[in-house]
Amino acid sequence: MLHIVNGDSVGTKLKKNGTPGDVLVWREIYTEGPVFTQPELPANRAVRGQYLEQALGIPRQEWRASSEAQEKQLSGFRQYNDIVLWFEHDLYDQTMLSCLLYYFSEQARGGTKLHLLSINQYPGIPIFHGLGQLSEEQLFGLVGTWQVITAEQLLLGKKAWEAFTSKTPEAIAELLQEDTSALPFLHAAFRLHLKRFPSVQNGLGIIEQTTIELLLSGVDTPLQLFQRTGDRLYGLGMGDIQYWLCLRRLSEGPHPLISLEGNVRIPGLNEPPEAFLHAKVSLTELGEKVAGNHADWTTMSGIDVWYGGVWLESSSPLWRWDASRSAIVRA
Question: What is the pTM of this model?
Fold first, then answer.
């Protein structure tokens, strides 16, 4: 048996608690940066590696080596009788699940059976962020509760990955009009993904908008902002380095919306964050205008951001989220 999981925390606990079988930790952040239907192609890997290094500080050579290693291990899946995919409800996991279902849908699987363990809650945990919250004993209690992956789930996962990696968000919008109940958490996760696009009201995506709202309510340190934003938008499964990138974008450039006390530097990957975590954050004058929908930040600052396969940049047609219509629209 092979267990494919979403993070080292879960993988380590499964190894320690006696869960039978091998463990493959799938290390990726498909919710950040350029994503392609076939990420293993050299040209696609080069584009993504460059972005992850520049935006998140992940060394591209290390990332490339890790990607190639996990793909090599995955390619040997036929040696296993059973494969279990452990992925929860949030966008972070649903994109990984979609990618893997796309992969398996393209393979001759022989006698290997695929199984899925996917949950969005656990008794006693009011805000369920994911499987990493569970103890070794709690995870062991889930062993054997997985279900066989059906042909319908494989097909839906394939379509979901193709939609997520499409060059326009129209494919996701169309997918959400279909019956996605075979993967019960897919619809909410992908709809939340569309809300990450700049809004028609003020040019802020849902992460930036939530950050501004929390600042207006009195939350004023990066640590508190990350925790509270994560609790409000737990359906994203957003990690700290992704959120620090959000704060960096809000605080830099010619039109910043926030300022950090003492010009504290936002840490990169593996840099000590202590001084930054408790620094005071405040809205700029422009930030207050944007918060009141009296200015459009994207129009003023321009944009150069990837959402799945969609590259939003100032010289191309701009896709936006219209909350009043609950729809993605072409501006």
Answer: 0.96
